[in-house]
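It is worth pausing here to work through a concrete case rather than discussing structure prediction in the abstract. The textbook approach is simple: state the sequence, then state the predicted structure, then interpret. We follow exactly that order.
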Amino acid sequence: MNLTFVEKNFTGLFEKALLEELSQIGNYMELDEGHVIMRPGGYIRTVPIVLTGSIKILRPDDEGREALLYYLGGMDSCAMSLTCCLDRKKSEILAITEEKTTLITIPVEKIEEWMCKYSTWRQFVFLTYQRRFEDLLNAVDEIAFHKLDERLLSLLQRKSKQTKNKTIVITHEVLAGELATSREVVSRLLKQLEKLGKVKLSRNKIELM
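Step two, the predicted structure:
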């Protein structure tokens, strides 16, 4: 990376001195869809800032099931990563790219240093926590107050919004994992949604109508 690239993407978000540091220590990455960025149990060495694309953050359990927590999009960072690196804790999440994604990674030792050094970085971190807290509240609300068919449709709508595409390439098994249910249940609910004119189904594709 160079300063011109960083200024193009982050001017207005971070102050000049921080942009200069970011251009020196940030690592630019281009990742294909399905790339695993972070696994549970590993120590977090870097924190990502997403430029383009999207990343889904999942919480796995001991039986191998994975519940979707939230998505990261452009100019987003992961609050769970920030928390783990500041507390020197192992990762408790699984992070996977939902589509082709570009991002910048920052070494963990800079996270706390910049919190004291740069007001714009401190604000960015606080806003990241706020966004993720709101995402988690929405996830809890859906589980507590909405039926599974409503949660499924909401999940599809979020995926469509993240990818800016009404056609979602995904298997019923992956959807079942993100909703912590069975593939058979998801398949049945999708057929019901198709009858209601909400979606159109084809092999490994779901189109929102």
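Step three, interpretation. The chain has a mean pLDDT of 84. The longest strand covers residues 46-52.
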